[in-house]
Write a sequence for this structure.
């Protein structure tokens, strides 16, 4: 369960972890924070969201292909799978239910729900109730995240096109 405290999102998980591993993960997180401070790429005006959704589909297909070709290696990226799935559905104008998003993550539902909670808490995903069915909850990307994904996919498309020349 994710909890919002001021501007910080906290997920409570009962776990025993060796101190050396916590220190290692802290170093990794610090490197990631420094890497994130690099200026993001910008979306080029000639690339439309439909083309970028095709890139997202390609990335998802490559991930599934990778999992089939390398079955003994665990690739744990449920948030990335959910993000790509939400982007594709966003471009198609389709709503995504929580249960559908859990399926798209390719992990157990409880794991997917923890990821969804964390991403909602951080403001990356937005939950909304289905007006026609009060039991159903939809998930969408925040507008800021849509822009960041489009920038990433446009850069990925540009690099892939350059590599194929």
């Amino acid at each position: 369960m994710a909890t919002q405290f001021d501007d910080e999102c906290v997920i409570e998980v009962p776990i025993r972890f060796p101190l050396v591993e916590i220190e290692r993960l802290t170093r990794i997180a610090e490197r990631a924070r420094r890497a994130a401070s690099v200026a993001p790429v910008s979306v080029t005006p000639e690339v439309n969201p439909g083309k970028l959704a095709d890139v997202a589909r390609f990335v998802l297909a490559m991930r599934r292909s990778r999992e089939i070709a390398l079955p003994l290696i665990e690739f744990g990226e449920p948030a990335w799978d959910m993000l790509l799935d939400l982007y594709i559905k966003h471009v198609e104008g389709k709503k995504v239910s929580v249960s559908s998003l859990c399926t798209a993550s390719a992990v157990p539902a409880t794991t997917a729900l923890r990821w969804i909670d964390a991403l909602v808490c951080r403001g990356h995903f937005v939950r909304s109730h289905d007006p026609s069915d009060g039991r159903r909850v939809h998930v969408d990307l925040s507008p800021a995240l849509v822009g960041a994904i489009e920038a990433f996919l446009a850069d990925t498309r540009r690099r892939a096109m350059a590599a194929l020349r």
Notes: Residues 66 and 75 are 9 Å apart (CA to CA).
